[in-house]
Amino acid sequence: MISISGQRQFQAWQDKVLPPVEEVRPGVWSIPVPFINNPMRYTLSYLLVGDGAAALVDPGWDSDEGWAVLNAGLAVAGLRPADVTGIVVTHLHPDHLGMAARLRAASGAWVALGANEPLPSHWRSEPARFLAEDRAQYTQWGVPQDFLDEVTFHRDAWAQMTNLAVPQLRLADGALLPVAGLAVRVLATPGHTPGHICLVDEANSLILTGDHVLPRITPHVSLEAQTQLDPLGDYLNSLEIMGAGADMEVLPAHEYRFRGLPHRVAELREHTLERSLEVIAVLDAGSAETVWDVSKQLTWSRGFDSLRGFTLRLALAETASHLVYLAARGREVEIEVSRGTPTPATP
Length: 347
Ligand SMILES: [Zn+2]
Known about the structure:
single chain, 347 residues, alpha/beta, Metallo-beta-lactamase, Chain A, 2 domains, seven-stranded mixed β-sheet, four-stranded mixed β-sheet, 11 helices, 16% strand, globular, disordered C terminus, binds zinc ion
């Protein structure tokens, strides 16, 4: 069993309200920022205060409301936005990187992403190509014409993504955050995204896990980026290395703090492998010819037909990640799984 150390966060989660700002350790603050119109409801930002320097990890979804909440949270810690010297982002998703541009504008802080997080070169400059490649991918995956509009990206999604900050710094595995007075180490954990990172604060016995390990939900592992050949294989490998934080308190980017990382890691591994067995059973049945066909035959909590829009997109990308995972392990998979454009997509 995991033990929930963030009891006030857990209570807030149950009550469907925003958790309080909390000082988890001296100089380590948890600041929940609203994740607008999403069932996850908030991103847990973490403020790490050093000597005349401070890093904010995952500033959260960009909104005026979120900005006000973040400012109020910084004020509880006795800081203003201008006091933030660095912005560290665990991965390139808008509920993590979203407010980085606004915070950078207010503070001049650098923005740092994991060394392996891809930034598609034509993503800002060629929206038409970006959208066409995305549509081509889902077409190849067997998505019926009637559903293509809802699963693929449109100009509004593109516009939202192009608002994201461009990083000034890239953080390699094992690097220390360049913040005076802190000894926080980067742990590369590809899977949820190719360049996802966790942060290890040995002195405080804390591990910040971003979306890699969450206490309640299983992170999405999607086939998205062209640079990531086998996201599910990467994800499972990245679970293996979590022994580094076995006895530490876990500070995830959503839900609530907990202890018992090895137990949670084992659950996530088991859940993932069970899902792969289910995909194998569908392949063995022999009637599936596309990613869409396979997805349709898998079990989904509210049934495949209830999946619509972005949720349907995620389901298909998850199925695709299982197909390439199995093919990479020598399993005969006759379904061709192409990939279009690398996209920052999954919350
Ligand atoms: Zn997230």
